[in-house]
Design a protein that fits this description.
This protein is of the alpha/beta class. The chain has 7 helices and 4 strands, in the order αααβαβαβαβα. The chain folds into 2 domains: 67 residues; 122 residues, Spore Coat Polysaccharide Biosynthesis Protein SpsA, Chain A (Alpha-Beta Complex), CATH 3.90.550.10. Helix 4 links the parallel strand 1 and strand 2. The N and C termini lie far apart (83 Å). InterPro entries: Glyco_trans_2-like, Nucleotide-diphossugar_trans.
Length: 231
């Protein structure tokens, strides 16, 4: 009995039926393979060719745009009226418009010194600039650090104001709007907004404000962003 194989235990009728089913499945597959698989493969080839053509057209278009920009693009200071502000011996710093700097913050423990320091180091007459730190922080420790940083710069003669509010209605936009309601803002002619992690170059205002002052049709100047890692 130990020599009986598994094949002996399976009746021949079942074995034959199993072979017939496998044969039928194979026959069905042979019948549907050509009309089913071939069209799918052809469709995939057409899709790949179409995508390749689209990529080629995109590269060609971008190449043409780059060439046209290189040939005909003019720098902003040549497309618009632009002239640097200079101190006048007769009127002094009055030639410079008064600019309000707004810096909205919210628990900016890591970067608050960067933006405040950069704003305070802007090359602009100190009596023609107002720096407004709008602190919506919910962490008392962060609030204290930001306020002390503002006091430190104020002790150096910088016109910087630390401002908080009772609620965070409107979030960042609400803080900016609330800051514009202050009485000391009424004499400011232009507003510059820096996020809490911005670090504008010292000559930012000297480069940007002339576009607004000398071109009445311009209402907004957007500077280029560059990302960096600061310790």
């Amino acid at each position: 009995m130990a020599d009986i194989t598994a094949k002996v235990l399976i009746p021949e009728t079942f074995q034959g039926a199993r072979d017939d089913i496998a044969g039928q499945i194979g026959l069905i597959w042979e019948l549907i393979k050509a009309p089913l698989i071939v069209p799918v493969l052809q469709l995939a080839v057409y899709i790949c060719l179409t995508m390749s053509l689209m990529l080629f057209v995109e590269r060609l278009y971008m190449g043409i745009v780059i060439i046209l920009v290189k040939l005909f693009w003019k720098k902003p200071d040549k497309r618009y009226n632009w002239e640097p502000f200079r101190e006048d011996l007769e009127i002094g710093n009055s030639a410079f418009p008064v600019v309000l700097i707004q810096i909205p913050m919210y628990n900016e423990r890591e970067v608050y010194k960067i933006s405040i320091g950069a704003a305070c180091n802007l090359s602009w007459p100190s009596d023609r600039i107002v720096i407004q730190v709008l602190d919506d922080s919910t962490d008392p420790a962060v609030k204290d650090m930001v306020e002390k940083e503002c006091q430190r710069w104020a002790s150096k003669g910088v016109n910087i104001i630390y401002q908080i509010r009772e609620t965070r209605g409107g979030y960042k936009a609400g803080a900016l709007k609330e800051g514009l309601k202050r009485d000391y803002v009424k004499h400011c002619e232009y507003v510059a907004i820096f996020d809490a992690d911005f670090r504008p170059e010292p000559d930012f205002l000297r480069r940007a404000i002339p576009f607004l002052a000398l071109n009445p049709e311009i209402a907004l100047v957007q500077a280029r962003w560059r990302f960096g890692k600061f310790n």
